[in-house]
Specification:
The chain contains seven helices and five strands. The protein is of the alpha/beta class and 146 residues long. Strand 1 and strand 2 form a beta hairpin. The chain is globular, with a radius of gyration of 14 Å.
Length: 146
Amino acid sequence: MNLDPFMQAAIEQAKKSLAEGGIPIGSVLVKDGTIVAQGHNKRVQEKNPILHGEMDCLNNAGRIGSYRDTTIYSTLMPCYMCAGTIVQFSIPKVVVGESVTFSGARRFMEEHGVEVVDLNDLSCIEMMQDFIHKNPKLWNEDIGAL
């Protein structure tokens, strides 16, 4: 299956984070068919507990005015913190690579009118499963389960 180019860009961001010694989660923000921002989890790299992939992406977007005509792509189902930001900014659609390794806040987003599309992508699942297997303590820190 050929992945959508926006999800492929999010996966490249996740790989960039992994190469930097971080958690392999990437995100891109799309507006009018164009990537307006990219980001990846930088919790480890910048010692910042809230710099998840989606948060880094939105931070990199800067002030773009309304987010009502955007879609955010993430390699992993957003957590409640990131989902809260998505809801707060009225981002109408989230496309995720997978939710097998982390179920996240799908229901919360849907209850607040966000369309959530889960691609259940094997490459995203395998990337996270491999990372979690090799780095269980770091993963548990990331999801607040220590």
